[in-house]
TrEMBL record:
The protein's name in its UniProt record: DUF3168 domain-containing protein
Superkingdom, natural source: Bacteria
UniProt cross-references to InterPro entries, sorted A to Z: Gp17-like (IPR021508)
One Pfam match: Tail_completion_gp17
Length: 121
């Protein structure tokens, strides 16, 4: 699932990685996208583990320009909710929050998207 989500976001043309803001190298361009798995639910049948799982991931969009954050967050949401491929059956945006992150005195705008991903294990 991780590789499929990453592959879906890569064509947006912005630095994207699994991890946190601090995992980017120094001087990495804005806007930036990070992805983290928040939770995972495994289904079970009476006999064994089911082959379909549901995960909640958080996709953070960072930029030093507020308009750029809002536009890219909409684009990320649209890309993921439209995406079907590889192991991913469907994605659904659950919530979106605004925020900022400190970065050496600069104000970095942030939108955090909670996405539910249903996928084949």
């Amino acid at each position: 699932m991780e590789a499929d989500i990453y592959a879906a976001l890569e064509p947006l043309g912005h630095p994207t990685l699994w991890g946190g803001f601090d995992d980017f190298g120094p001087g990495e361009a804005f806007p930036r996208i990070t992805i983290q798995r928040i939770s995972n639910a495994t289904g079970y049948s009476l006999k064994s583990r089911a082959d379909v799982e549901t995960a909640r991931i958080q996709v953070n969009v960072y930029s030093d320009d507020a308009d750029q954050v809002f536009a890219l967050a909409r684009q990320v949401s649209q890309t993921l909710t439209d995406y079907r491929g590889g192991s991913v059956i469907r994605c659904k945006e659950i919530s979106r929050r605004d925020g900022t992150t400190p970065s050496g005195g600069d104000v970095i705008r942030l939108q955090m998207l909670d996405i539910q991903v249903r996928y084949r294990a």
